[in-house]
């Protein structure tokens, strides 16, 4: 029954890319604060492979603060149309600046400007304040490239555990789990 969990992820992800109406790369990211308070939010998968699962964010926001304080996280992909989900758990590390630069350069200009304009997770007195800051960034970078802000970059979750869940009739679901064992994976089944 052994199978490479990354190959299985790739197969399910490819299928989700064709069946999910919106954001097939959306994943729930669960973190924990230094005092043990859990927090979860949706982020977008921007890269994956044997090295892990990558997303990008403002490194001065709440999620980044929690990842810096407790560098472990859990991810959840839920593809309702396929009736499948994948859970991933493991340590988190920062993505290299060159990789963050390359991804940032691929974003739309407005997304790039928004990264400069937003003090992510901090209180905002009103929407007009944010829109004014966005307009300031438009003027600041008018006619030129928008560089990656120094406070913005990627994180990578390196999986130690990956669980594949598939819906079955009468709640007799199928659950396959892979647990990292050195350079290889131990595979098993879990009761639904």
Keyword list:
192 residues, alpha+beta, Pnp Oxidase, Chain A, ten-stranded antiparallel β-sheet, 10 strands, 29% helix, 36% strand, elongated
Structure write-up:
29% of the residues lie in helices and 36% in strands. With 192 residues, the protein is of the alpha+beta class. Strands 1, 2, 3, 4, 5, 6, 7, 8, 9 and 10 form a 10-stranded antiparallel beta sheet that branches. β3 and β4 (52-58) form a beta hairpin. The two termini are 18 Å apart. It has one domain (5-190): Pnp Oxidase, Chain A, CATH 2.30.110. The model has no long low-confidence stretch (mean pLDDT 95). The protein has helices spanning 5-19, 62-69, 97-106, 109-117, 127-140; strands at 26-32, 38-44, 47-49, 52-58, 72-79, 84-94, 152-157, 161-166, 174-181, 184-190. The protein is built from 5 helices and 10 strands, in the order αββββαββαααββββ.
SS summary, helix count = 5
> What's the level 1 CATH class?
Mainly Beta
- Structural class category: alpha+beta
**Which range best describes the helical content: under 10%, 10-25%, 25-40%, 40-55%, 55-70% or over 70%?**
25-40%
**What is the C-alpha radius of gyration, as a whole number of Å?**
19 Å
* Helix and strand pattern: HEEEEHEEHHHEEEE
Describe the global form: elongated
Number of domains: 1
Could you tell me the mean pLDDT? 95
> How far is it from the N-terminal to the C-terminal residue, by CA?
18 Å
CATH architectural arrangement: Roll
Number of strands: 10
Q: Considering the protein shown, what is the CATH homologous superfamily?
A: Electron Transport, Fmn-binding Protein, Chain A
Which ranges are low-confidence, i.e. pLDDT below 50, for 5 or more consecutive residues? none
Summarize the biggest pleated sheet.
Answer: 10 strands, antiparallel
């Amino acid at each position: 029954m052994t199978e490479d969990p990354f190959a299985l992820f790739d197969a399910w992800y490819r299928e989700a890319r064709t069946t999910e109406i919106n954001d097939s790369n959306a994943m729930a990211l669960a973190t924990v604060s230094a005092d043990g308070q859990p927090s979860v939010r949706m982020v977008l998968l921007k890269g994956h492979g044997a090295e892990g699962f990558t997303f990008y964010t403002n490194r001065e926001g709440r999620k980044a603060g929690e990842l810096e304080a407790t560098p472990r996280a859990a991810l959840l992909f839920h593809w309702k149309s396929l009736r499948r989900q994948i859970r991933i758990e493991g340590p988190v590390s920062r993505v290299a600046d060159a990789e963050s630069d390359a991804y940032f350069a691929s974003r739309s200009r407005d997304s790039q400007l928004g990264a400069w304009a937003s003090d992510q997770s901090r209180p905002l007195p009103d929407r007009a304040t944010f829109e004014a800051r966005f307009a300031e960034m438009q003027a600041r970078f008018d006619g030129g490239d928008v560089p990656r802000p120094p406070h913005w970059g990627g994180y990578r979750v390196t999986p130690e555990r990956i669980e594949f869940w598939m819906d079955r009739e009468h709640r007799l679901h199928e659950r396959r789990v892979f647990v990292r064992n050195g350079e290889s994976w131990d595979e098993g089944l879990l009761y639904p």
